[in-house]
Amino acid sequence: MNIWKISIKNIKSKPLYTFLSVFVLSLSITLLLGIQQLKFSFKHQMETNLSGIDLVIGAKGSPLQLVLASVLHLDNPTGNISYEDAQEISKTSMIKSAIPISYGDNYKNFRIIGTTQDFSTLYNAELQKGRIVKNVMEVILGNTVAEKLHLTIGDTFLSSHGLVENNIEVHATPFKIVGILKPTLKIIDRLIITNLESIWNVHHHESDTNHEEKKPHDTKEYHHEKSEEEITSLLITFKNPAGFLTLPRKINKQTNMQAALPKYELDKLYEYTGAGFKTISWIAYLILLISGITIFTSLYKMVKDRAFDLALLRTYGASNFQLAKIVIYESLIVVLFAYILGFILVKIGFYFVLKIIEPNYQQIVLQKTPFQEVLHTGAFVLSIVIISSLLAIYPIIKMHISTILSNEK
Amino acid sequence: MIQTDNLTFQYKKEEHIFNFPNFTLKKKENLLILGKSGAGKTTLLHLLAGLLKPISGKVIINTVDLNSIHNNHLDQFRGKNIGFVFQKNHAIQSLNLIENLQARLFFSKKTIEKTVIDSLLKELNLNNYKNSKINTLSVGQLQRLNIALSVIHKPQVILADEPTSSLDDDNCKIVIKLLKKQAAQTNANLIVVTHDQRIKSFFQNSITL
After folding, report:
1. ipTM associated with this complex
2. Which residues contact residue A269 at a Cβ distance below 8 angstroms, ignoring those fewer than 6 apart?
3. Does the beta-carbon distance from B88 to A312 stay under 8 Å?
4. What is the pTM of this model?
5. DSSP B199
6. Residue A152's pLDDT is what?
């Protein structure tokens, strides 16, 4: 026999109280852990997907929309810009790299991006198997795309127009998979990458067939007027910070394009959403506090109800400290189970939430909350419960054994 | 051995001061303390156990003056050397019969061989209820468990507070005989406080408050 065993026996003898305490506490832990994971994933997504992109140039419209669409691939593009104009900007001396991207099609909700080979380098993405895109209508797949759609090298597919899967506007020209990227935990994992020519040709070919009779498809026969070529946006990395000062202003004032600073726009977005996260966090802390009060009142009542039992233990030779340990161990067991349950509930919750929303938001990559953060929440919950327990054991310290034993019922 | 010396106690200032008679019990000697309600029987018992501090006087158990021991040591001393039997029978509800005995031994920091525990339970006719929950035991079984709890750790003194007041004559006899037998087996002093005159004949030494 030892104090742990007595605490466990006490817990087992009050299943309803134990269940309610564990359940209420686990709800607040679930909320806290869930918010932490969402917050961390959100921030991580934004930071990693910036990948050194200093500036995004695209069609006029909302700068946030341009950044969301071109960097996080979450929104619709603001429009197209001339590739010729983009190439002209790329020649500016302060630019280290300028990567054109063009999109507007998807395959089973995964976006198809027409770009250059530099795009993969931007995200440090390496080939897992196959080779890079060399010809028109060839694609390489982000790791998640290949995994989720069970596609492999040599497979072909037909893309749909727009960014959401549909069976109405399916393009006639098939794409052929020539490579699959290694996982990067960045947005590129969820993209299908081809060259700019493929995107132009798919759309050019489609518009041609609207007017002309359909002809057998020949991928080698794509020709365009240079001036017709358009892209969605241009992802710029500067050589030095001086570029931030002049280029965005110049583009916004002197051209029909807009330049958006992704870090600035995403920081703004994080500020807006941060307020929401903060509110939910406060609600979770409030629930935790209520759980703490619930545990305190339950333990306090238990100490009062079991006053004779505790006095009896004192006559057995138990010290006040040992009695306090019995109560504290009971709360520790409740915290442990509540934390495990909270952790499981977060996992189950996110599994189902993601399952429901994933078809529409293929880009969501949930990050594991760092262990330190989980530990921090655990320590916070533990301290709330320890404080509740210490307050609850106050009657034990003040207990007058003789009076309790004299007033036995 | 237990001895009291000019023991006085007062619950609150300006309240009645209890003056208790001196007595000395040698090893294995028993004492019956009789008195009406309010005479201070339970108060004396709690003074003997160190649960109350006297305003003057001493309680000495095996040369140790209880008033001279620090509170924490007093808990340990009480756990090791004193056994209690209460008027109403109590045990820790969340533990079963054998676990209650194990808890008693744990807190008194004593190790008793399993065979000794088994023979005690057999003697008290409780060996078939080892794993029974406390709330499933009958009044008689619970009373016997309380006697077991008061002697399992082989104390120097067994203090019984009105152990027979709610019992009929037959059960009264059984309980007193059991208590005396167990006290004799463990070489302990048995001190019973009661207003129950039926048990007077079982004791050679008695004092009235």
Report:
1. 0.84
2. A46, A64, A68
3. no
4. 0.69
5. G
6. 92
